[in-house]
Specification:
CATH superfamily of the largest domain: Ribosomal protein L17
Order of helices and strands: HEHHHEEHH
Number of domains: 2
Structural class: mainly alpha
Distance between the termini: 107 Å
Radius of gyration: 30 Å
Number of helices: 6
CATH class of the largest domain: Alpha Beta
Amino acid sequence: MRHGDKINNLGRKKAHREALLSNLAIQLITHKRIVTTLAKAKALRTYVEPLVTKTKKTASKEEISHNHRVVFSYLNDKAAVKELFTVVAPKIAARPGGYTRIIKLGIRPGDNAEKAMIELVDFNEIYGNAVNAAAEPAKKTRRSKAPAAKKAEAPAAEASAAVETATEAPAETASTEETPAAE
């Protein structure tokens, strides 16, 4: 019986599973997104996110070196640890959690396995631009709004002037046409 056993063993023994997840985590940190099976992606999420959280907890030098050692014990790759602490950590500093995104890609033709892409959320340019564009107007000051307001008023004034001349012209022609008809 496996009551309360929530870990997905992925059909491997413990040492093989840890090596697999370590290698997948290294590739995810290095390339920022990888394509794998859905089960491996879900297992990788639970493996990587605590490691990424450890990069944020840097209060003292002892704690920094301790966190480097802890992360290195999981990854066993100096380049990936350096990438995680120097490139990934500053980008995710403000994010409270949820550092990865899993997107389902359909099935693999050979064995009908469900494929998925797992990526680091802050490194996706497609979704990141929309978030930055939405957050940008909230940060503007009064001085920066004044020139924007003048620019917005100028086309509106031109449009209203064009509408007024368009409405006046038919009224003038109508009054001139009525005058000869009245005589």
